[in-house]
Amino acid sequence: MHSRTVRSHTVTYSPAYTIVPTYECFNHCSYCNFRTDPGQSPWLRLADARSLLQQLRNAPEPVIEILVLSGEVHPKSARRQAWFEHIYQLCELALEQGFLPHTNVGPLSYEEMRQLKQVNVSMGLMLEQMAPELHQTVHQQAPSKSPELRLEQLRWAGELQIPFTTGLLLGIGETSDDWRKSLQTIADQQAKFGHIQEVILQPYSPGQQEDWFGSAFDLQQLPAVVALARAILPDTIVIQIPPNLIDQPALLVACLEAGARDLGGIGPHDEVNPDYPHPTIERLAAQLHPQGWQLKPRLPVYSQYQSWLPSQLQQQIKLIVKNSFQVL
Ligand SMILES: O=c1nc2n(C[C@H](O)[C@H](O)[C@H](O)CO)c3cc(O)ccc3cc-2c(=O)[nH]1
Ligand SMILES: C[C@H]1O[C@@H](n2cnc3c(N)ncnc32)[C@H](O)[C@@H]1O
Ligand code: SF4
C-alpha cells in the first residue's frame, strides 16, 4: 500500500467565555472599542453573572475559562475598592460554578494582585509596546499604558508566582525596533521569574466604537513578527495569535509555520474586538486539519505552573479535568 508521512502538529486554544465587570474606564486609548466614560456603564450585577454562568454550564460548546476583562477605575478613586471587590467576587462566583478564572483588568497594586491570585489560575496584562513615544499619540490620555507601570506588573506577577499572559499590540505607531525591544523586555522578565506562559501578538484591528479609526495592522507582516518573537523569546513561552483578527486561513497557517502554537480564548463573542466574531471550532479545525494542524483545547493554566496555585485551585483543576475528559 502506498504510504506517506503525514505531518501533524498541535495548536491549542482555551474554550472561554468573557465576562465584563464594567466597561467604564478612566483611560482613553484611541484604539479602544470597549470603554465608556466613568459612571456610564452599570456594573455587571452578581445575580446576573450567576445566572449567566449557570447557563454556560449547559452551553452546547463546553467552556472552561472565564476571562474577566474590565475597564478601569482610577487607583486613587474612592470607588476603586468597590471595583476591586466586585472583580474578586466575580472570580469567586466563576469558581463556584465550576470554571477557571483568568483576570485582565489593567494594572493592579501589589496587594490587589496578591489577593486576586487566590481566585485566578492565571492572570494577564498586555505590555502593548515599550515605546515611550506612544504617550504622545494613542496613549496620550491613558496613564495605565505607561511602559514602566506595565513592566512593574510583569515583575510583581513574577515575584508572586502568578502564571501570566502578556503581549504586544501591533500597528499603533511603533517601529519594528520597538517590537524587538518589547520582546526582549519580556524575555528578560522570563529569565528572572519564569512565570510567562504565553505572549499574544495582537494586530490592531479598527472597530465601530473607537475615536481613532487608524489603519489596521498589515496582516501580511504578522508571520515575520511571529518569527521575530520566536527568535527572541525563550522556548518556555508559547506564542498566541487571535484567529478572529486573521481573516485569511493561509495567513493563519503561515503564522503557525513561523512558530505560533496557540489561538487564545475562543468563545461566542470577542469583547475587545466586537466587530470580529470568532470562527467556530469546527470551522477552524476544518481549515487547519488539511494543512497538518490539529486543534486541541487547553486549560487557562499550563501544567508546569499548577504547583504555584493555592491548593483549593489545584483541587478545582483536578475536578474539572476529570469532568471534562471528553473535552480535554
Ligand atoms: O488569556 C488571555 N487572553 C487574552 N486575550 C485573548 C482572549 O482570550 C480571546 O481572544 C477573546 O478575546 C476571548 O473572548 C486578549 C484578546 C484581545 O483581543 C486583547 C487582549 C487580550 C488579553 C488576554 C489576556 O490577558 N489573557
Ligand atoms: C485588552 C487588550 O486589548 C487590546 N486591544 C484594545 N483595542 C484593540 C483593538 N482595536 N484591536 C486589537 N486589540 C485591541 C489591547 O492590547 C488591550 O491590552
Ligand atoms: S484598552 Fe483598556 S485601558 Fe485602554 S481605554 Fe480600553 S478598557 Fe481602558
From TrEMBL:
Keyword annotations from UniProtKB, A to Z: 4Fe-4S, Iron, Iron-sulfur, Lyase, Metal-binding, S-adenosyl-L-methionine
The family this protein is said to belong to: Belongs to the radical SAM superfamily. CofG family.
Cofactor(s) the protein requires to work: [4Fe-4S] cluster
Protein name: 7,8-didemethyl-8-hydroxy-5-deazariboflavin synthase
Gene: cofG
Catalytic activity, EC: 4.3.1.32
Cofactor annotation comment: Binds 1 [4Fe-4S] cluster. The cluster is coordinated with 3 cysteines and an exchangeable S-adenosyl-L-methionine.
Its biological purpose: Catalyzes the radical-mediated synthesis of 7,8-didemethyl-8-hydroxy-5-deazariboflavin (FO) from 5-amino-5-(4-hydroxybenzyl)-6-(D-ribitylimino)-5,6-dihydrouracil.
Subunit comment: The FO synthase complex consists of two subunits, CofG and CofH.
Example GO molecular function: transferase activity, transferring alkyl or aryl (other than methyl) groups
Coiled-coil residue spans: none
Keyword Acetylation: no
Catalytic class of the enzyme: lyase
Keyword Iron: yes
Organism superkingdom: Bacteria
Ranges where the Radical SAM core domain occurs: 11-244
InterPro entries in alphabetical order: Aldolase_TIM, CofG_family, Elp3/MiaA/NifB-like_rSAM, F420, rSAM, rSAM_sf
Pathway: Cofactor biosynthesis; coenzyme F0 biosynthesis
Residues the entry annotates as binding [4Fe-4S] cluster: 25, 29, 32
Catalytic activity: 5-amino-5-(4-hydroxybenzyl)-6-(D-ribitylimino)-5,6-dihydrouracil + S-adenosyl-L-methionine = 7,8-didemethyl-8-hydroxy-5-deazariboflavin + 5'-deoxyadenosine + L-methionine + NH4(+) + H(+)
